[in-house]
Write a structure and sequence with these properties.
7-stranded mixed sheet; Glutaredoxin; 5 helices; 7 strands; single chain; alpha/beta
Length: 193
């Protein structure tokens, strides 16, 4: 009797996983669960600047926006650049995006700070649908040239903060909550230098 019950329970579990996977809802469910973890505030980006081993961005990168316009990265020189590398299929990326949108809403109009949401997907229609569905307004770009070595990461999401002088002053591999007061102060302080 217990074996039949156990088989039925496993069957229901496998059916739920199958439905989530084949309908594409798996990413959304996983992102929701990870967003709950982020609200705890336990996972935050690094705001401590270490003086040694700072890598510099050479600005040798061309970005393409969702309308097909090319923007050379060197047009962002002398500004603080917030770069988030992401994809629509990445649950941790989706989980952290509301906090990035909040950060963008609060300080994105600062003329000394630039947001670059850098996607590695090539299907612009899929990206547009995703951004529209989620009501995100931050600037989204793809890569229109070779990605500089200093911006390469083994996983996404990865977020970089580049100083006005082109130094990488923060790098976070994995998801984080970006709309904290500490991180906003960190960006604003860098922007005021």
């Amino acid at each position: 009797m217990n074996l039949k019950k156990e088989i039925r329970e496993w069957g229901v579990f496998i059916a739920i996983i199958g439905v989530l996977y084949f309908t594409g809802l798996y990413t959304e469910v996983a992102a929701f669960a990870q967003r709950v973890i982020l609200t705890s505030g336990l996972i935050t980006p690094n705001t401590e600047i270490e003086i040694t081993n700072k890598e510099k961005l050479d600005y040798n990168l061309k970005l393409i926006d969702l309308k097909g316009n090319i923007t050379p990265m060197d047009s962002f020189k002398n500004k603080v650049i917030f770069i988030n590398e992401w994809a629509t299929w990445c649950a941790p990326c989706i989980a952290e995006m509301p906090s990035i949108q909040n950060l963008y809403d609060e300080i994105g109009d600062n003329e000394n700070i630039v947001f670059v949401m850098l996607t590695f997907e090539e299907d612009k229609n899929k990206i547009k649908k995703f951004i529209t569905k989620k009501d995100f307004t931050f600037p989204v770009y793809g890569i229109a040239s070779k990605l500089p070595e200093v911006l390469r990461s083994s996983s996404i999401p990865t977020t970089f903060v580049i100083s006005k002088s082109g130094e990488i002053i923060s790098k976070k591999v994995g998801m984080a909550k970006y709309d904290t007061e500490k991180f906003k102060s960190f960006l604003l302080e860098e922007a005021s230098k």
